[in-house]
Amino acid sequence: MTDLSTFSLAGKRIVVTGANTGIGQGTCVAIAKAGGAVIGVGRSSMDETESLVKAEGGTFVSVACDLGDHAAPSTMLEGVWEAAGQVDGLVNNAGIIRRADAVDFTEIDWDDVMDVNLKSLFFLCQAFARKVLAAGKQGRIVNIASVLSFQGGIRVPSYTASKHGALGITRALACEWAAKGINVNAIAPGYVVSNNTEALRNDPDRSASILGRIPAARWGKPEDIGGAAVFLLAPASAYMHGAVVPVDGGWLAR
Prior knowledge:
Layout: E1 13-17, H1 22-33, E2 37-42, H2 47-55, E3 60-64, H3 72-84, E4 89-92, H4 107-135, E5 139-144, H5 157-177, E6 182-189, H6 198-201, H7 204-213, H8 222-233, E7 244-247
Parallel strand pairs: 1-2, 1-4, 2-3, 4-5, 5-6, 6-7
C-alpha cells in the first residue's frame, strides 16, 4: 500500500512566484490540496488565487514584489522568512516573454526577460539556501523551466536563453546543495494555457500546428504542472536532485 503521507505537504510553507495566474495559480492550488500553506509572490493582484486556495481549505499570504528589480528578490525572501517564519519550499515560476524576429530583437526585451526569468531565479535560490543552511534545516526548490530548455523555439530568443539557463542553474545548484539538505529540481512545462501562450492560442494556424504535434492532443492546464510541483516538494522525491520533469503532453517524445 502506498504511504500517501510521502506526497503530503502538511505543515510546510511554500513560496510561489508569479502566483497571480496560470501555472503559478495552479501550483498554489495544488499545494493547498496537498496540505501546504502558500505564500504567493507577484506584481499584480492575487485575490483570485487566494480565493481558490481558501476554497480548498488552505492558507494564502500574498506578497507584492517586482522580480525585475535587481534588489527585490533577496529582500523579499528575507522579509517573508522574518515575518512568516521558516519557509520549506520555493517554486520559481515567475516569467515573462517577448516575441520578435531575432534580427529585430531589442536589448531592452533581452534584458527584461533575462532579469525576471533567470537573474531573479538564481538570487531567490541563493537567498532561500542561505536561510535554510543557516537554520540547519532542509528545503526544496522547484524551478519552472520549459520545453524550450531543450529546443530553440520561434521568435523568442531571450526566453529560450533564459529557460536553457534555468535548467543549467538547477543542475549547478543541485550539485552544490544536494548533500546539504536542499533538493533543487525543475519542471519543463509544454504548451500550457497561460498569459505567455495567449498570442499563440489566438493565432489559428500556430495553435493548430502546436496541437497537431502534442500526442495528448490538448493544451496543458495549470493544474497539470501543479501536481508535478507537489511531487517535487514532497518527501516522495527525496532522492531527486538536479532532475527535470517534462510535463508536456508528450511534446518532447514526439
